[in-house]
Each structure stands twice: as C-alpha cells, then as structure tokens.
Amino acid sequence: EIIRKDAEFYKKYFYAEDKSVFKFSAVWSINTWVYDCFDTINMLRCMGPAGSGKSDMMYLVGLTSYRFAVTAATTTPKSHEGLAKIYHATDLIDEYDSALQRDDGTLSGYMKARPMRRIAHSFKMMEVMTPNGKTFVPSNTPIFGPTMATGYKPTKDKGLESRFMTFHLTKTDMLTLDR
How many Å apart are CA 52 and CA 116, to the nearest integer? Predict the structure, then answer.
C-alpha cells in the first residue's frame, strides 16, 4: 500500500515514459526507513541529459525517504559525513559527477563506504591532552546510510559503479510536458 501511494505521489508531480521508475523508486524509498536492519543499501542514481528532470525526480523520492537532505555538488565530503553521523540522513548528492571531478578521493571514498555497514566508518586522529602530555586517539564517524545521486554519465570507478542502482531519464520525458 505504501509503495503504491509513493509511486502515485511521484506520478502526480513528475512525468516519465517508463512508469516502472515510480515503483522502483518507491521500493528504494521504503528501504531508507529500515536500512539499519540490513548490512548493505545500494545507492539510488538517476542519470540523464540536462533538462531531463533528474534532480526533480530524486527530490520527490527524497520527500518520501527517511530524513532527507539535499546537497549540492559544492558540499564538502566532511559535510556529508556530518549529515550521516548527526542526522542519519538520506543524502542526495546532486550532480555527483561534477563533484567527483574536483574530488581528492575523499568524496569517492565516502560514496564507496557508505552503503556497506562493515566499512562505513570514517576515522581521524584527534589530539588529546593527558597528564603525560599530548597524545593522539582515533575518532570514529559512522557513515552507513542511504544515498541518492544525480548525474550525466557513469563514473570510471568500477568499485563505485557497483554500488549504484540506476535508472535513466531522457529529455523526451520533460519535452512531453511542454505539449
């Protein structure tokens, strides 16, 4: 029933020739509410040319997802980690391929680790004062959780590609609405 209602919600505000996109997205959205019951959760990705409605469709999916947070391509990897740690947010990385072009490996690492509970930890060393002087201790940021992404084309990173469930939109989908 919830899957049907979510799919109807997407159809009400978005047109796509391939109607299976709505049910597919609804099932993924439901998973965001129970993702912590599983050890993995694939990232949902929407690809297509400029003007095809990728961001609009994913925004609708986000509205039905658990703790939705939209992030622009300019968002830093540390900010994504903060959203994961503090809010356990469903993170939409809009135009991820643009963000990865400027990436030093940190965002790519975040995106590779986030879908798998066993490796979804970001560590940094923190300087701590003790009675014996300064020392360093590891600080863990758990980052496991649901992620959505929009982009124009696949990445060249096979490891990252293997973590996506992808659907494609065409400009035809949006042009039909102009008629």
Answer: 30
Distinct helix (H) and strand (E) counts, the chain = 8, 7
Q: How many of the other CB atoms lie within 10 Å of CB of 27?
A: 15
What tokens appear for 162 in the block? 């293997």
Which residues have a Cβ under 8 Å from the Cβ of 69 and sit 6 or more positions away?
A: 83, 87, 89, 90, 91, 92
Q: Which pLDDT belongs to residue 123?
A: 84
CA 136 to the chain's CA centroid: 32
For residues 47, 52, 55, 61, the Cα torsion angle rounded to the nearest 10 degrees is -80
Location of structure tokens 């020392």? 135
Beta-carbon neighbour count of residue 133 at 10 Å? 6
Residue found by looking up tokens 């991820």 in the block: 96
Would you list the DSSP string of 52-79? S-HHHHHHHHHHTSTTEEEE-TT--HHH
pLDDT above 90: residue 174: no
Bridge-partner residues for 70, per DSSP? 92
CA distance 168 to 68: 21
Higher pLDDT, 10 or 178: 10
In terms of DSSP bridges, do strands 121-130 and 90-93 run parallel, antiparallel, or are they unpaired? unpaired
Cα separation of 79 and 86, whole Å? 10
- The listed range with the strongest mean pLDDT (6-10, 103-107, 173-177) is 6-10
